[in-house]
Write a structure and sequence with these properties.
Elements lengths: L1 H12 L1 H4 L6 H26 L13 E7 L6 H8 L9 E8 L5 H8 L6 E6 L10 H10 L4 E6 L2 E2 L4 H8 L4 E5 L2 E3 L5 H22 L11 E4 H7 L12 H12 L3 E4 L7 E3 L5 H12 L7 H20 L6 H25 L9 H20 L8
Parallel strand pairs: 1-2, 1-4, 2-3, 6-9, 7-10
Antiparallel strand pairs: 4-8, 5-10, 6-8
């Protein structure tokens, strides 16, 4: 009889975790999950309403310095140059600075040849001995120091910018802003891996846009951003971030937020969206994902708090699904979560120019959290390789 009673206790009150006195644990877990879920649902609903394209009032054209750091990008830089030639921004109000970051291929030769017909473009070369900072920091810092413009616009060598890119940044940039954040889509191809990369990029875009639109920028995308040169110099710039092997964009945004006054805003104009070529091999994809997740341990407290909040919510919900006393409540929360997420993600697909992802949303709603935990864990261990 005593044995039967003990079995009931083990099943109904999780006493095997918290001891025989923990008779109220199922109710406590329901309360905690309910509160976390309410907060999460509010954030998801807010996300759906915030992701609305905007058109900004036209402003007088200001001078921009466009900066592109390129290392071994000979195969990918030509589409970018072609897109820069189509910019509708006045040639007299811009300069374009390419930085050959000690490439070992024909990147420098190709850029030199192609920019002869690109007004205001020039090339800076960085030797291997001059690569004193990790990643792209040294190349970007040198270009910024040589730039003539007060407004700096940055993209990557494997991107394609739309004709209205600089005009969208110019119209969005007001006198109180020190940095503008944008988004970069991943080019669409057939196959599961490409769908995964595009969904991962969509989620990253949400994590950049929504906090910034709420007034607390936590992240950024180095493939599409702009900032004031004076703000960069005042912050100390990339030399202040030498300890970070990757995450140049994210940590520069945090440096601006911590050291400077002024606004860091997200540019919601559709004309600011750039696109980037997806990695070509599974090996490239794997190391890119690991490298991206390596930033987590060094992020700011608000970013870490958000990550911890999401982790606890999903872990608690998953555990409660396996116990009779809490499974119904946890399943209800899971159903509501999937429904609200689907609506927000559907809205995000339109906002970030990814309507083709809508058909894959149910699949990645279930799969992505698991992949994110695995890749995030590997990234935090620092097990990644940088581009040679």
């Amino acid at each position: 009889m005593a044995s039967k009673r003990m079995n009931v206790i083990l099943v109904t009150d999780w006493g095997w975790i918290f001891g025989r006195g923990a008779v109220k644990w199922p109710m406590l877990s329901i309360i905690i999950l309910g509160l976390l879920a309410l907060l999460y649902f509010a954030l998801v609903l807010r996300t759906a309403f915030l992701l609305t394209p905007r058109r900004y009032p036209h402003r007088k054209e200001r001078f921009f310095s466009v900066i592109i750091a390129a290392r071994n990008e000979g195969r990918r830089v030509l589409p970018l140059i072609a897109s820069l030639k189509k910019l509708d921004y006045p040639a007299g109000q811009r300069e374009i600075i390419f930085v050959d970051d000690a490439s070992e291929d024909d990147t420098a030769a190709l850029i030199t040849k192609k920019i002869t017909t690109l007004p205001g473009a020039r090339l800076i070369s960085v030797s291997p001995a001059e690569r004193l900072l990790p990643g792209k920091k040294n190349a970007l810092h040198r270009a910024i120091m040589e730039a003539r413009g007060e407004l700096i616009a940055v993209t990557d060598a494997d991107c394609i910018v739309p004709p209205g890119w600089l005009r969208a940044f110019n119209d969005c940039f007001d006198e109180r802003d020190i940095m503008l954040l944008g988004h970069s889509r991943v080019s669409g191809h057939r196959g599961f891996l490409n769908l995964y990369l595009r969904f991962d990029n969509l989620f990253s875009g949400i994590m950049v846009a929504v906090p910034a639109l709420l007034g607390l920028p936590l992240s950024s995308v180095g493939r599409n951003m702009a900032y004031r040169r004076s703000a960069y110099v005042q912050s100390g710039g990339y030399p202040q971030l030498a300890r970070h092997r990757s995450g140049d964009d994210v940590f520069l945004t945090e440096l601006f937020r911590q050291k400077l006054t002024g606004h860091i805003r997200y540019c919601s104009c559709p004309g600011s969206l750039v696109s980037s070529e997806a990695p070509e091999t599974l090996r490239e994809i794997f190391w890119q994902q690991i490298r991206k997740n390596s930033k987590l341990p060094y992020k700011s407290l608000p970013a870490l708090f958000l990550t911890l909040f999401l982790f606890v919510l999903h872990l608690l919900m998953a555990v409660m699904l396996f116990f009779p006393g809490t499974v119904v409540f946890a399943a209800t929360i899971l159903g509501l979560k999937l429904l609200l997420e689907f609506l927000a993600l559907w809205r995000a697909c339109d906002f970030f120019g990814e309507p083709g992802l809508k058909k894959a949303l149910p699949l990645f709603q279930g799969l992505y959290p698991l992949l994110a935990v695995i890749l995030g864990s590997l990234g935090m261990l620092g097990l990644y390789k940088w581009k040679p």
